[in-house]
Amino acid sequence: MKKTFYGYVRVSTVEQNEARQLLELEKWGILRKNIYMDKLSGKDFNRPQYQKLKKKLKSGDVLILKSLDRLGRNYEDIQIEWRQIVKEIQADIVIIDMPILDTRTNKDLIGTLISDIVLQLLSYVAQAERESIRQRQAEGIAAAKARGIHLGRRPKPLPPEFYPLYEAWLQKQMTMQEAADKLGVARHQFEWMVQKYRRLKNSD
């Protein structure tokens, strides 16, 4: 049965450059039409191009990736996907940066055992690093807040037209719906502005 070589490329954001991964895959002679790419996070496998590629894979095919973290970053999910591709679909996987993770070779019991151990270790390290980054970010945000540093977008100020309409509503000169219509917002938005204004007044 003729085997087909496929490549998979993943970058976390639209801004990131996928050129290096594409170059490595092209060195393997993989046709561009057989290279699938997602510009999404590796936190899970709900990626359209990856799922499309997985449906294409058949027994004997070879899936090539630049590095293991391009497949994913979740330890348990990587294990599940790897088993499905290698055991159930019976396709092979090659990780360019980690030659020991090449299921085409060492298909004997010892070779398979070594590959499984390395895969588990690397998958665990990838997830541990991701969780470490998340923890450092949370600690940095907490430390910044403790120093009184505001993070994120500054709250949008109330429009100047709100104040006279608020007073008119407060004096029962118009209903809240009428005030919202004059301001050009929905009633619930005007109500939110009222609550925000009152919170600001109480904090003064």
Task: Describe this structure as you would to a colleague.
By secondary structure, this protein is α/β, with parallel strands linked by helices. It folds into 2 domains: 5-130, Resolvase, N-terminal catalytic domain (Rossmann fold), CATH 3.40.50; 162-203. The protein is built from 8 helices and 4 strands; from the N terminus they run βαβαβααβαααα. The protein has helices at 19-27, 48-56, 68-71, 75-89, 109-146, 162-170, 176-183, 187-203, and strands at 5-11, 35-39, 62-65, 92-95. A 4-stranded parallel sheet has the order 2-1-3-4, sandwiched between helices. Helix 4 runs antiparallel to helix 5 (109-146) and helix 6 (162-170) packs antiparallel against helix 7 (176-183). The protein starts with a strand and ends with a helix. The model has no long low-confidence stretch (mean pLDDT 83).
Short description, anyone?
This protein has 204 residues and is α/β, with parallel strands linked by helices. The protein has helices at 19-27, 48-56, 68-71, 75-89, 109-146, 162-170, 176-183, 187-203; strands spanning 5-11, 35-39, 62-65, 92-95. The protein has 2 domains: 5-130, Resolvase, N-terminal catalytic domain (Rossmann fold, 3-Layer(aba) Sandwich), CATH 3.40.50; 162-203.
